Amino acid sequence: MARTRELLRNLDIPLLVVTLLLVGFGIVMIYSATYGSGAAGVRELYRKQALWAFLSLGVMAGAIALPNKVFNGFAYLIYGFAILLLIVTLSLGVKGRWLAIGPFSFQSSEFAKIATAMALARYLFGRKQLTPGRVMTCFVICLLPMLLVAKQPDLGTSLVFAAILFPVLYQAGLRPLYLFFILTPLINVLCAFWWVSWGIFIVVLLIAIYLSRHSFATAVFLIAVNLGIGIAVPVLWGRLQKYQQERILSFLDPNRDPLGAGYQVIQSKVAIGSGRIFGKGFLQGTQTKLAFLPKQHTDFIFSVVGEELGFLGAMSVLLAFLFIIWRGIRIATSTKNRFASLLAVGLVSIIAFHVFVNTGMAMGILPVTGLPLPFLSYGGSFLMTSMLLVGLLLNVGMRQHEY
User: Fold this and answer.
1) From CA 387, how far away is CA 68, in angstroms rounded?
2) Sequence-ordered list of residues with C-beta below 8 angstroms from that of 1, at least 6 positions apart, any chain
3) pTM higher than 0.85
4) How many Å apart are CA 230 and CA 355, to the nearest integer?
5) Which of 121, 119, 125 has the alpha carbon at shortest distance from 144?
6) CA dihedral 129, 126, 66, 335 (to 10 degrees)
7) Does 199 have pLDDT greater than 90?
8) Can you give the three-state secondary structure of 66-110, one letter per residue?
9) Is the pLDDT of residue 3 over 70?
10) Are 25 and 353 in contact (CB under 8 A)?
11) Mean pLDDT within 249-271
């Protein structure tokens, strides 16, 4: 009993309260987003979300109660089970993404995110020296679920695994310069479409190579690879068909196709902008009620917040997420257990990436990738995963003084 009381004293009550407030707020906004819908099933979505929230509370409580040693000991087994679920989903799932069990269906990719964070933390737990081989193993741990999810196809969710990898490697001790070198191929592709941006990138790369004091052979290899990519990208782009180029450009710039690929983003920006400072009022959003905004209760729930509650409401939601991310980072940096610290970083990265991409997508800053907003977007398996994630963070925080 004394041990239980000590753990409860260490429970991060502010983190728990803010999370539960966001969950409750999400149910209210789903009700608003579906209010007045002609389809009876859509009108009842907020009730289903409330049921999932209730079930998720039990999952969160279980995650809080179990010792860290359990997750450490079973991390590889959990990861293997998640990979198996992804394979089964590809062959037997609905639309390649959903597994149905009786009346319930869930996305196995949601569970795979947490399982991958656990596997990474477990692998790096006893390996404080990050050799190139170990870094490559971490890449493989993330690449396997990433490819399986991309095959579903779900590009947005597949990118989450990369978002887990790099912060965990940094927390494990990988130097920022090495992280930059790992990311150079991707940065190179993005910069290669304009010679000025590509030239700046090459200059930055040369400075980074000089500062890192790499061997001559390594420096030549890095320069050669990036020069090769820079030359290849324009050539490969020129070989694409016109319609293929247009699809990519519309993905990056929705305004090129306002009635097609860019329709959702344009309507989302109209909804957020029309809310102004104080919003149009609860249940008063015209873009929402007149069904101009597709997927308003899932991927574009933030647009409903912006339209009905205005800038102040949207900023309040963002501040709540920033608070959760800050508390998560605080937990990750203060815990004495290496596995728990690395796991916490991976979990915080999942939340931060989802929030950044979803809100950026709703405001037209980032391309549409289909990533939902934690705690607010409709979706039972995603809500349960998000609450499990916070439960694990609370678990780490309660036991932060344990080695």
Assistant:
1) 17
2) none
3) yes
4) 31
5) 119
6) -40
7) no
8) CCHHHHHHCHHHHHHHHHHHHHHHHHHCECCCEEEECCEEEEHHH
9) no
10) no
11) 75
- Strand ranges, E, within 125-248: none
Residues 398 and 287: their CA atoms lie apart, in Å, by 44
For the chain, the distance separating the N- and C-terminal CA atoms, rounded to the nearest angstrom, is: 21
Instruction: Decide: residue 241, CB within 10 A, 0-12 exposed, 13-18 middle, 19+ buried.
Output: exposed
* pLDDT given for residue 213 in this prediction: 78
Crossing angle (nearest 10°) for helices 75-92 and 132-150? 30
Mean pLDDT lowest among 53-57, 102-106, 155-159, 361-365: 102-106
Q: Residue 305 has which token pair? A: 């917040």
Mark out the alpha helices in 213-337 (DSSP H runs): 216-239, 242-252, 263-275, 286-289, 301-334
**Beta-ladder partners of 98:** 94, 107
Q: What angle do CA 238, 242, 247 make, to 5 degrees?
A: 105
Mean pLDDT of 260-276: 80
**φ, ψ (nearest 5 deg) of residue 293:** -105, 105
- Which residues fall within 8 angstroms of residue 200, CB to CB, at 6 or more apart? 191
Q: d(Cα 388, Cα 383) in Å, to the nearest integer? A: 8
Mean pLDDT of the chain: 86
pLDDT tens string 169-187: 999 988 888 888 888 887 8
- For 73, 144, 146, 165, 186, the CA distances from 140, given in Å and listed in that order, are 20, 6, 10, 10, 17
Asked whether the CA dihedral 212, 216, 221, 227 is positive or negative, the reply is positive
Residues 282-330 have pLDDT tens digits of 888 777 766 667 777 788 899 999 999 999 999 999 999 999 999 999 9
DSSP code for 366: S
DSSP state, 156?
H
